[in-house]
Amino acid sequence: MHIRTPRGWEIPESHATPEHIFLSRRNLMALGAGSIAAAGLALPAAAAETDPSAGLYPAARNPRYTLDRPLTPEPSASTVNNYYEFGGNYDVARAASKLKTRPWTITIDGLVEQPRQCVEGWSMALPWTGFPMKALVDYARPLGSAKYVRFETFLDRAVAPGQNGRFYPWPYVEGVTMAEANNELAFMVTGIYGKPAPNQFGAPLRVALPWKYGFKSAKAIVKVTFTEQRPKSFWEVVQGGEYGFWANVNPAVAHPRWSQATEKDIATGERRPTLIYNGYGEYVAGLYAGMEKEKLFM
Ligand SMILES: Nc1nc2c(c(=O)[nH]1)N[C@H]1C(S)=C(S)[C@@H](COP(=O)(O)O)O[C@H]1N2
Ligand SMILES: [Mo]
Fold first, then answer.
1. 243-261: per-residue pLDDT in tens?
2. Cβ(170)–Cβ(235) under 8 Å?
3. N or C: which end of the chain has fewer CB within 10 A?
4. Amino acid 193: pLDDT
5. Is 167 left (phi over 0), alpha (psi -120 to 50) or beta?
6. What tens digit of pLDDT does each residue of 12-47 get?
7. Which residues surround ligand 2, an ion (CB under 5 A)?
8. Whether residue 231 has a cis bond before it, omega within 30° of 0
9. Are 7 and 62 in contact (CB under 8 A)?
């Protein structure tokens, strides 16, 4: 018998919004029809002028919540961002604030029963504040032939100065296998620190794959495509010798230009040993059984 020990990221069922409430087919059909109601709630017009989902935050926190380190303070996390569309380092937050995230249309296409568009409004109660990627997959009803999910970021050169450069293959693209997308740890993020995510974190919708390197988690997604072909991701196109498709965290496999054995806490500057699969091996190692020939860790 398999005894399950709750992990830090889990919250008790009783604290989570039941899945059928926030992502029922009916609610999503309503969103597809242009409603800005999030989680099936009708929101007052006044609130919609700022952020119609704001009332859904903060999500209930797990009283048993433990992590192997303290949370990074918000001021640190929200000023150290990687978002090449908006330039480097310290100006990212200010530059990204120019992106208009409402209304926001997300296209679901490729190998699905019925291609569709959903207009924003994704929110629910989970620690990262987001929803399982599996819920998105279930909603999209992919065909049996779909093997990968491809995520594409917005393309708007007028708003994102970085996208004017010729060097990078815009828009940002990332992808996962269907099995990864359906893994319990794969998340779609709408919020952070108990509120809707500020733009620099990838609002209004970004991916979070806690067992992979950060670049796998595409921000500001406008298109989700179910496909038979393995997506060629942004960094793979830029520098295929350094960044691969799988990008699972492994301290034993160095990046060609630096060690990946330890990591620096951005707030305290302290270094700690990096764990394989970021410590989530129990949940994700099985995804890669029998794939030893693949470059799983770059
Ligand atoms: N669209 C887009 N998504 C992106 C990036 C980017 O430049 N553009 N950077 C990636 C990289 S390299 C990292 S490390 C993470 C950083 O996420 P954070 O700023 O929320 O920490 O976002 C990833 N997603
Ligand atoms: Mo990154």
1. 999 999 999 999 999 889 9
2. no
3. N
4. 86
5. alpha
6. 444 444 333 333 333 333 333 222 222 333 333 443
7. 82, 214-215
8. no
9. no
pLDDT digits (tens, 9 = 90+) for 139-176: 999 999 999 999 999 999 999 999 998 899 999 999 99
* Separation CA 82–CA 92 (nearest Å): 8
Residues with CB under 6 A from ligand 1: 81-85, 153, 172, 201, 214-215, 217-220
50's CB contacts (< 8 A; 6+ apart) are none
- Cis before 127? omega within 30: no
Which residue's CA is minimally distant from atom 24 of ligand 1?
218
Cα(216) to centroid(ligand 2), Å: 8
Average confidence (pLDDT) over 175-179: 98
- Looking at residue 32, its amino acid is G
Counting ligands in written order, the one closest to the CA of 218 is 1
